[in-house]
Amino acid sequence: MKKIIVLFILFVIFSIGNSEILNWSQISYQAFLTGSSDDIDVVTSASPNAGNAVNTKLKSGLRWQHEFKGNFDHFNISLKNDFFYSEKRHESRNSFLFNDAKLKLSYFPNSYYFKLQYGNRWFDEDNTRILTIPGTEEITKQKMVHNTELQYKSNWEKLKFSFYGKLRNLDFDYFVFDEENSNDEFTGFSEWENDIYTSAKISYEINNLFNLFVSGYYKDDLNEYDLFNHTKFGVGLNYFKKYDFFNFLNANFTYFHNDSERISDEKTHYFLTKMRYTKRIGTSLAGFVSYINRSCYDSEQNKLLRISNMLRIQAKYSYRLDTFMDSYVLAGIKINPENKGSLIFSELNQYIYKNFFGLLSIKYADELFYAFSSGFEYYLSPVKSFWIKNEFTDFNKSPTHNIIFIGSTVLF
Amino acid sequence: MKKIIHLILIVLLGIIIFLGCEKISNLEYNIDSSSCNSCEKCLQVCPVDAIDFGEDGKAVIDQTKCNQCGQCIYICPKDAIY
Q1: Size of interface A-B (CB pairs under 8 A)
Q2: What is the pTM of this model?
Q3: Which of A15, A8, A156 is nearest to A74 (CA)?
Q4: Which of A124, A306, A339, A353 minimizes the number of CB atoms within 10 Å of its CB?
Q5: Which strand (E) or helix (H) includes residue A108?
Q6: CA gap A132, A205 in Å, rounded
Q7: Which of A98, A151, A220, A312 would best serve as a mutation to test chain B binding (most B beta carbons within 10 A)?
Q8: What span, in angstroms and rounded, lies between the C-alpha atoms of A355 and A358?
Q9: Average pLDDT value over all residues in chain A
């Protein structure tokens, strides 16, 4: 036992000698300026019908994100925490008070990569909305989610192998209507839902441009329903051409065979085509063109059906005006006709004067929403900043909202 | 020149599929993993617990649970959902 402790101490001392540690923290206070009429009800008792909309006009919110990262030679540790509270029910969020924590350990010598991760997400019952599970139509409220993940990747010359497994435990309450008393009362019961996700992929490098791969995915709903079980097998070809360090073309085609009660038969034979071309001109201008097509073959009708097409073109021009960071202007377009998700967007980050930056962002999706945000950021040093932002969104189907964020970001 | 030909061929293939094929009866939303920044905002708004995170830490829509409500499209800061 003593030997192990001595070896461990030596390992830690040796590792610290070659270590790199990063800490960052971001705290933001949010003030909501919208009227109270667009608050979304949050169930606060065992009855899913009981709403508790708060009716004052000025509401507050707080978010604190923190991450610690340590690199010790081939070993990496990361601890992330995200705390969120909002007095205003401004979006269709599931919870307005939650904490999300993740611990990740990874080990990566030259030929393989191993990762172990545990994540925990806690929801406050009084600030969490009810959800309905599709298929069962159960009324539920999440209390806590545990995710335990394991990942392994290895390379043998032209052959690559990866495996991923995840166990997900969801602690939730479900509510059942009391028919005997028929006085509109629901009774709550506590329940665990356990799901296991596994996937594996083997790829073979045919030459320096093409890779052939086969993959498998299996999800098992370990509870009694078996409704959400899903098995998927894939085979595909990947093309990757690197013209130089910044310019490359990546394209791949995959055929999937789907098997699940919850996925329609017409999607059993599923085709995915992806292409992305990235181009940089000089040190200032960079952009990409990305295209994704999803189609399926309906064997009953003997027809090829299209699921979605997405074309995205984006360019970013960076110009150095300051000692801290680049100012930039970004613009792009996304075309997605099947899901009515087409939009244009633009973003500007402009150095103004003595460590002051101005931010402007516009998004316009004709059939979905219009969003505008602006803000100022003041850098005390390259790693410490204070900022104030205003975000206005006009949704076509949901209430408009206007939020002011005041925050600070610190790297140490 | 070859790059441009590759690009045109792939886009043409897409246009052929777009024009030549019937659209599927149900909507299906997916996430462009190259644009996703893993902010988890979609997870926070999904009303049916259909957002999962894959091995690369990027969001994935679980098609066995998704009810096509489109809430995740509005919230995504990177417009990665299509």
Answers
A1: 153
A2: 0.83
A3: A15
A4: A353
A5: none
A6: 45
A7: A312
A8: 10
A9: 83
The answer for B 25-54 residues in CB contact with A (under 8 A) is 25-30, 32, 34-35, 40, 44-49, 52-54
Q: Please give the Cα distance from A353 to A346 (Å, whole number).
A: 22
Tell me the C-alpha distance between A55 and A181, whole Å. Answer: 33
End-to-end CA distance of chain A: 36
Least-confidence region, from A229-233, A347-351, B20-24, B56-60: B20-24
Asked if A180 and A210 count as a contact pair (C-beta separation under 8 A), the reply is no
Residue of A133, A310, A363 lying closest to B48 (CB–CB): A133
Test A305 with B23 for CB contact under 8 angstroms.
yes
Q: How far is CA A395 from CA A337, A360, A372, B6, B71, in A?
A: 19, 19, 11, 38, 11
Can you list the residues of chain A whose pLDDT is less than 50? 36-38, 40-56
Query: What is the rounded distance in angstroms from the CA atom of residue B27 to the CA atom of residue B15?
Result: 19
Task: Count CB-CB contacts under 10 A for residue A82.
Answer: 18
- Considering only CB atoms, which chain A residues are within 8 Å of B45? 91-94
B40 close to A100: Cβ distance less than 8 angstroms: yes
DSSP string, chain B: -HHHHHHHHHHHHHHHHHHHSEEPSS----B-TTT-----HHHHH-TTS-EEE-TTS-EEE-TTT-----HHHHH-TT--B-
pLDDT for A202: 97
